[in-house]
Specification:
Blueprint (H helix, E strand, L loop, with lengths): L2 E5 L3 H10 L6 E6 L2 H9 L4 E3 L16 E4 L4 H14 L4 E5 L6 H10 L2 E3 L6 H9 L1 H14 L5 E4 L6 H16 L4 E6 L5 H10 L3 E4 L10 E5 L18 E4 L11 E4 L6 H11 L6 H14 L9 H10 L5 H8 L5 H13 L1 E3 L2 E8 L5 H10 L6 E8 L2 E8 L6 H9 L3 E5 L3 E7 L9 H25 L9 H7 L13
Parallel strand pairs: 1-2, 1-4, 2-3, 4-5, 5-6, 7-8, 7-10, 8-9, 10-11, 11-12, 14-15
Antiparallel strand pairs: 13-14, 15-16, 16-18, 17-18
Helix pairs in contact: 1-5, 3-4, 6-9, 7-9, 7-10, 8-12, 9-10, 9-11, 10-11, 13-14, 15-16
Length: 499
């Protein structure tokens, strides 16, 4: 919750207040000497107090605000109010309206005392609002306070098997934490797949900690989640873990815990949000972090063609001067491994097509990296606008889906189909899932394994196709009992004998 204090209420200020009063959950107090304005504001349910904003006594008993706007029409009143506000609230963010008769000395004094100065010759009310009510500016104040309150080491957790957006966001949040004196680690569970992702980490020499499920987290005093929003969902953390910070751009599938939560579904990438924070914190962005963040934005927006927003373009423009373009080219063009080509070939050969939807199992895989690339290749085939490619490694099934169909939301489709038996998520046109196939571990020979895999393949295929057909309906029911049994068995029957 942000507390905004307005000192003086002139013409420009009234326009700003009309916008500020619509921020639900935040607090606003206006202090002005014009009693008629006070009465009008109160009639509009805006908290207002009659007092001279230039008099230090007017704010002597006001609790410290987060943001102050000095907004009288008179320069002399604003100058005195600004001086008193800075003395009384040295840590507040102050934006001051210069007024209509400012001298050069006034401008110098305003520049000295205020964080932002609005000159009536060049600014309108919208510019004032940008200075006082920008969500990123307000959130930056809250995030800085949250980070500064951490006593100990912070773990910044990306989602399992992180993509460039998650990795870059984790590295950026570590930089923000360290800027306020908090030690932090960028952490992830699982593996970094995709040749491009590994190239990004290696070429940029990103400092990351790969955690195992049985690693102790006791050394950390606080936890932050980036590019996902719930502990225990798409990470290996306890589901009841106390989370301090959550920053994500995906729609949540349930309650989101956290002392500080920034969920911006309008942003194309979490890296966009972190870039705004780096800018708001006024931090110098090093080349490695800038390159990682730009690559994260480009991957999640498919080079600014998918779910892109103006904020993504702006973040890219902020990052570009700091990006190492030669390393970025090397990251984007890694060599294609032979195993990846073989997986793509199996996907094309094994595909099952129903209307414009193609599903393919590639069987046993050594590298999950190839699955999304195979899904992309199937999507390039004539008559296909939605694809699912899946394969098996150890006791897990890994799924990757792609779509260019306007009436398909793959993230919702995979969650509906596979959340009951695993974890799934993603975007409308790009999503993935992981399913634990415990029964594979009990198989004794290759023939038995192939038989089990055949059944699992049928379950996955049918759940996906039925979820596509019933969108935006409910999870598939026809195969629920069979699939839940397959994906939860550990190789023992009720009496303990081997299955």
């Amino acid at each position: 919750m942000v507390f905004r204090l307005v000192l003086g209420c002139g013409t420009v200020c009234r326009q700003v207040i009309e916008r500020l009063s619509g921020h639900d959950g935040d607090r606003l107090l206006v202090i002005t000497a014009d009693e008629s304005v006070v009465e009008t504001l109160r009639d509009e349910s805006v908290p207002a107090r009659s007092a001279d904003p230039a008099d230090p006594a007017a704010i002597a008993n006001v609790e410290p605000p987060d943001v102050i706007f000095v907004g009288s029409d008179r320069t002399d009143v604003n100058r005195a109010a600004l001086r008193g506000a800075r003395d009384r609230f040295p840590d507040a963010s102050i934006v001051a309206y210069l007024g209509g008769n400012a001298t050069a000395a006034d401008r110098d004094r305003f520049d000295e005392l205020a964080d932002g100065v609005v000159d009536p010759t060049t600014a309108l009310a919208d510019r004032v609002l940008d200075g006082t009510a920008s969500p990123s500016a307000e959130a930056a104040i809250e995030l800085r306070d949250q980070l500064a309150s951490i006593d100990g080491r912070l773990a910044v957790i990306a989602h399992d098997n992180p993509d460039p957006d998650a990795l870059a966001s984790a590295v950026a949040l570590v930089a923000l934490a360290e800027s306020v004196g908090v030690d932090a680690d960028a952490c992830y569970f699982g593996e970094i797949s995709h040749q491009e992702n590994r190239a990004m980490v290696n070429l940029l020499e990103l400092n990351l900690r790969n955690m195992a499920p049985d690693d102790s987290i006791a050394e950390y005093s606080a936890f932050a989640l980036v590019d996902h929003s719930r502990p225990g969902v798409n990470d290996q953390l306890p589901g009841d873990l106390h989370v301090d910070i959550v920053i994500d751009h995906h729609p949540p599938r349930g309650p989101v815990p956290g002392e500080f939560v920034d969920l911006r579904q309008g942003a194309g990438a979490t890296s966009t949000i972190l870039t705004e924070y780096l800018e708001q914190f006024d931090l110098e962005i090093d080349a490695a972090t800038a390159t990682a963040l730009l690559y994260g934005i480009r991957v999640d927006t498919n080079d600014f063609t998918r779910e892109v927003s103006p904020a993504d373009f702006r973040a890219a423009s902020v990052l570009w001067p700091h990006v190492d373009t030669s390393l970025l080219r090397r990251i984007e063009q890694p060599s294609l491994e032979g195993e990846t080509l073989e997986t793509i070939a199996r996907a094309i050969k094994n595909r099952i097509q129903r209307d414009s939807v193609a599903v393919a199992s590639v069987g046993r895989i050594g590298d999950r990296d190839a699955l999304p690339q195979a899904a992309d290749q199937l999507l390039a085939m004539e008559g296909v606008d939605t694809t699912l490619v899946f394969g098996f490694a150890d006791e897990m099934a890994f799924l990757s889906a792609r779509s260019r169909a306007a009436d398909v939301d793959l993230g919702e489709t995979l969650r509906d189909a596979f959340d009951p038996i695993g974890s799934a998520g993603g975007h409308a046109d790009m999503a993935g899932a992981q399913l634990e196939v415990g029964i594979l571990g009990s198989a004794d020979d290759e023939a038995e394994i192939e038989s089990i895999v055949s059944v699992v393949e049928e379950v996955i295929t049918n759940r996906f196709l039925e979820a596509i057909e019933t969108q935006p309906g409910v999870p598939v029911g026809a195969y629920t009992q069979t699939s839940e049994w397959l994906f939860t068995q550990r190789g023992e029957s009720e009496d303990g004998e081997s299955v």
